[in-house]
Amino acid sequence: xxxxxxxxxxxxxxxxxxxxxxxxxxxxxxxxxxxxxxxxxxxxxxxxxxxxxxxxxxxxxxxxxxxxxxxxxxxxxxxxxxxxxxxxxxxxxxxxxxxxxxxxxxxxxxxxxxxxxxxxxxxxxxxxxxxxxxxxxxxxxxxxxxxxxxxxxxxxxxxxxxxxxxxxxxxxxxxxxxxxxxxxxxxxxxxxxxxxxxxxxxxxxxxxxxxxxxxxxxxxxxxxxxxxxxxxxxxxxxxxxxxxxxxxxxxxxxxxxxxxxxxxxxxxxxxxxxxxxxxxxxxxxxxxxx
Length: 290
What we know:
By secondary structure, this protein is of the alpha+beta class. It has helices spanning 3-12, 23-37, 47-54, 103-117, 132-141, 179-187, 194-200, 237-243, 245-264, and strands spanning 16-19, 59-64, 70-81, 84-94, 122-127, 145-150, 169-175, 207-211, 214-217, 228-233, 267-277, 280-289. It has two domains: 3-187, 3-Layer(aba) Sandwich (Aminopeptidase); 194-289, no CATH class. It starts with a helix and ends with a strand.
């Protein structure tokens, strides 16, 4: 599909963002959770909890199509981080048919606007570091940063997305009034000349192909002393997980090693790169030392 045609298709998706309208919307939110996370009902956040949270400092926003049907939502609750009030964004889901149309991005922009109205300047959430698209969305598009890694954060879940692996998560922190965040939201992720960038910043590991589209990780160098470093992961890591759980477990072990080592040394994951190199996609976590 050409870029022009893709743009037109996105323009055809008219999305309205607003608060939940009726109790039926809270029920629809539960249906979207089932579709997105494919988990058993015991792990679905119930409608009455969402309703109670929204009446006591929480915030739920829905995305509606031009027929008025809910196609996605985001929910957050009041919290405290580092002694400061925050919103903790614990749910963001978009129906499968409406993905790749920036619905999630529009929901996060609306959430940011509403939270700022409440005089709160930070939203935090967790995401799976084994999901490159999520990392790109959170760090690359939204401009959030990560400084904490949680091993097996949720324990065992029934979600197909977590099947076979501990539920390791990165804690993302979105500083809503930060100038770099505002610039990223305004202009989007920069276009990268990968070869030039790889000359500027050291890569702490190397990918090794052991089968078609099956990459393992070379020895990681956790002792780099540069102010900025790159950690490469396969762009198709979710597919690797579905094909070979053993390789996926190895990758998770490498991630634990890297994130723990660099966070301990005062680095933060401040970006996620997706770039093309000789016809292949390459993806990198970008670490900066404060």
